[in-house]
Amino acid sequence: MSEGAPWDRRDFLGAATLLALCIGVPVATVRLSKLDEDDEPSERVRDMMAEVTELVIPRTDTPGARDVGTGDFVILALAHGLSGTKAPVASGAITPALSSFMRRDGSLRYLPWLERTLDQAANGDFFRRTPAEREDILAKIDAAAMAPGAPWSPWVAIKGLILTGYYTSQAGASQELRYELVPGRFDPDLPLRPGDRAWSSDWTAVEFG
Length: 209
What we know:
Elements: H1 13-23, H2 27-32, H3 43-56, H4 70-79, H5 96-99, H6 110-121, H7 131-146, H8 154-167, H9 170-176
Helix pairs in contact: 1-4, 3-4, 4-8
C-alpha cells in the first residue's frame, strides 16, 4: 500500500481485538467503524509506529512490540480515544510547538505530532538514521518527557498505549510477564530472585518510565 492510500482495516484485526478488550466493545465495532480523516494512517505512519514500539520494547528472548502488532494497536487506540487521548488538552499545556496539531475541539493529533517530532530530532528523515541513532533520538524524547517537573508531553500518552498494547497481547501477558490462571494458589510471601518476571495479573500500565 502506498503512502496516503486508503487504510485497509482488515490488516488491523489483531490490534482491534486487543483494543476491543481494553474498551469493552465488540471487535467488529472497532474494526469496521468509520474513522475520521485525521485518524487514517499513511503507510509511513504505520511504519513509524511499528519502529517506535519496537524501540520501546525490542525483541529479546520473547517477541518484541513489532512482532505482536503494537503499532497498529496504538493507532487504533488513538483513533478511539483510549486513555483520554480524544479529550481536550488543558489550555496550560498547549505550547507553540503543539498548537499546529490541535483539533477544533481542543484534542491533539498525536500521530502527526510524533511524526514531526521524530523527523525534527533527526534533522530530516527519522528513517534515514541508523537503528542506533533512532534509539538515541527516542531515548532523548523519552527522557525529556519523563523528567521530574517536565511540561506535559504527548509522548507520555503514546508510551502508555504502547505498554498497554504490548502487555495485553498474548506474548506480552504470558511470555514477557508470568501468567497463572486465577484463582490459582495464594502465596502471601514469595522470594524475588534476580531475573524474575512480573505477573501479568498484577500489571496495569499506569506506572512506567
